[in-house]
Design a protein that fits this description.
mainly beta, Jelly Rolls, six-stranded antiparallel sheet, three-stranded antiparallel sheet, 2 helices, 9 strands, globular
């Protein structure tokens, strides 16, 4: 396919690396986040410890009844329950890819923590 110089590049044209282990966590109660900011995209490792719930751990800091941001993520370990504003519920488990629209609550399901990695461009998630 021919290269079109008039098209703008929507990605950073160089490889980049970050390690979650090298990033200090942002902790809200039983929920911790480590965000790797790469040029043009952020990857955030989120861990809901046993007993964590968005409405209990993050709601006080955010100030909304439900999470108002979208999330696209891959569940790495454990399970996460999600309830939408309309009352519909789903459980996402290790290996699932999830897309959560704004207007949800989330909590750990089971007796182990849930860790997922979400991806975003710009300010489309709570940071």
């Amino acid at each position: 396919m021919p290269h079109n110089d008039s098209m703008s590049t929507s990605y950073y044209p160089a490889m980049q690396r970050a390690r979650f282990a090298d990033i200090d966590p942002d902790v809200h109660g039983l929920i911790s986040k480590r965000t790797a900011d790469l040029e043009g995209v952020a990857a955030t490792q989120v861990t809901f410890d046993v007993g964590a719930r968005w409405s209990a751990d993050l709601k006080p800091d955010v100030g909304t009844d439900l999470c108002d941001l979208p999330h696209v993520a891959v569940v790495i370990t454990g399970s996460l329950g999600v309830r939408m504003a309309d009352g519909s519920e789903e459980v996402f488990s290790s290996g699932d890819v999830m897309l959560l629209p704004p207007g949800h609550d989330a909590w750990t399901v089971g007796d182990g923590p849930c860790t997922f990695v979400e991806f975003s461009r710009g300010n489309d998630y709570y940071a």
